[in-house]
């Protein structure tokens, strides 16, 4: 029997690999917009609730990869046919709070997701400053931004290998912690189980979470599917 390592090839992308970057963006967009995996429908809950189409989301993903790829934190899994079947993309930029709508036209609803992420990021940054007496700087944290798996099999193993690849690299480069915004319980479970990440608690002992029930655009998401977006962290 072949081992995981033989079935899939893992690598961190460089900006020269334009065709693989494109495939990585496609993989992420497909997994977020929604796809059938072994008879089960898989998609990101906010994307599922909002009016977001594949083309717009692909363009957003591709822009993100193009702008962060040189930092060296986009890992992909390719199968034996060189199809990209898994992507974990991150960056070491300090979180940025824009605070206004930046998407328009058919992609307007992406602003709702942006606001949710900015809400939890802002509260995390404020708590970080209280704890450490200073603002977060670029290069301090590895921000795991997007995870997409379109493989039918071995999905958890792929997630584990992709995460290990990036976290090991971040650790070797002196990054202090790994941070992510988990938008559904499945992401939380995977990050807790495979990467020892934990839901972040602020100084008052409360989770930093944006509850979907309190958001007029997202309160249609069933609570048993996902209750909110949480900050997860792992110190390195």
From TrEMBL:
Q: Which domain of life is it from?
A: Bacteria
Q: Which Gene3D superfamilies match?
A: 3.40.630.30
Q: Which InterPro entries match?
A: Acyl_CoA_acyltransferase
Q: What is this protein called?
A: Uncharacterized protein
């Amino acid at each position: 029997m072949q081992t995981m390592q033989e079935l899939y090839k893992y690598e961190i992308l460089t900006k020269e690999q334009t065709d693989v970057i494109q495939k990585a963006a496609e993989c992420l967009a497909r997994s977020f917009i929604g796809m059938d995996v072994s008879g089960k429908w898989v998609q990101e809950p906010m994307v599922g609730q909002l009016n977001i189409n594949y083309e717009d989301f692909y363009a957003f993903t591709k822009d993100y990869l193009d702008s962060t790829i040189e930092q060296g934190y986009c890992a992909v899994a390719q199968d034996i046919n060189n199809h990209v079947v898994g992507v974990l993309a991150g960056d070491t930029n300090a979180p940025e709070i824009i605070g206004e709508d930046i998407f328009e036209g058919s992609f307007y609803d992406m602003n709702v997701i942006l606001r949710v992420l900015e809400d939890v990021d802002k509260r995390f940054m404020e708590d970080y400053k209280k704890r450490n007496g200073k603002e977060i700087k670029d290069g301090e944290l590895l921000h795991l931004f997007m995870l997409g798996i379109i493989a039918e099999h071995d999905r958890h193993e792929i997630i584990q290998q992709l995460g290990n690849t990036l976290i090991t690299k971040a650790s070797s480069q002196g990054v202090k912690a790994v941070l992510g915004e988990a938008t559904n319980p499945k992401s939380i479970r995977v990050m807790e189980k495979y990467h020892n990440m934990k839901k972040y608690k602020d100084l008052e002992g409360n989770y930093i979470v944006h509850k979907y029930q309190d958001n007029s655009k997202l309160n249609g998401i069933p609570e048993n599917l996902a209750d909110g977006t949480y900050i997860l962290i792992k110190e390195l």
